[in-house]
Each structure stands twice: as structure tokens, then as C-alpha cells.
Amino acid sequence: MKCPFCGNADTQVVDSRTSEEGDAIRRRRQCSGCGKRFTTYERAELFLPAIVKKDGSRVEFSRDKLRGSLMLALRKRPVRAEAIDEAISSIEEKLLVSAAREVDTKFLGELVMQQLKQLDTVAYIRFASVYKSFEDLQSFSEEIAHLTAPAESGSIATKPKARTPAKKGA
Questions:
Q1: Where are the domains of the chain?
Q2: Does the global pTM surpass 0.70?
């Protein structure tokens, strides 16, 4: 592992721990060249579904792009970095569990909104205003009213249920 500070290829693992979720190994490393310490994460390489954009083009899922979107919505909001990491992991887990090869941006956007709603309502409204293309104050008011209304059963984003064939003789 190259040192991100000086580029030296000789680094040593000082400490290794399993993450709280158990899905990654956190390693503290120290550079033998400059002596600085840094953290790396080791995760299993899983294949997440491709994202189908509104124009029909397909792109690979990007954890970094997802983090950037969340960070933009959460800018200057009092949310812990660990909570953001947990939200990203939760979204990735839901994408993996969907077992789909492709998901559209609408499904991904709904997953993001679901996480933001739990993290910070202001960030949720920020993201929703762009995602849902609010054009006037009325649109904002309706979304805020929906947000403050009593919770409805079920989640925002759900996986479509598979159809089961009818039993013979039924």
C-alpha cells in the first residue's frame, strides 16, 4: 500500500479491526518513510447493479458519487461521518439484496431519500427539491407537509414483488 502523503510503497499495518457492521476490515497503517499514519478499509468486492439513467444510458454504481450527493445535501448539517457511512452501506446493501443487474435512477433516488429522511430532514428537503424538481413554493410546502405527516406504513423504496404462478386447480 502506497503512502498517500509521500508515495512510499513501504507501509506497515499497525492495527486491524473489523468494522462495526462487520462488512469491512479497518487497518491503521504507518509509513516507514515519513512516519505518518493513515487508515484503509478492506471490503469484499461485490457486484452492484448498473444504474440506468433517465436518458437510457448505463453507468456503474459509484460509492464516491453517492457519497458526494449525500455530502452535498448534508452540507453544514450536524450529521456524524459514521452516520453517513452507515447510510451509504445501507443503500449498497439494499441494492445487493435487490439482486437486480440494473436499477433505474428513480429507485436509487428513493433509497437516498429514505436514508436522508432518517439522518436529517433539512438535507432530505434539499435533496428532494432537486430530485423531484420543485418549481415553486407550493411544491416545497407539499413535501414538508408530507414529511411532517404521521408516518405511513412501509418504506419509500420497496423492491417490486415477484409474481407467483397460480396453483393448478385453484
A1: 11-43, 50-148
A2: no
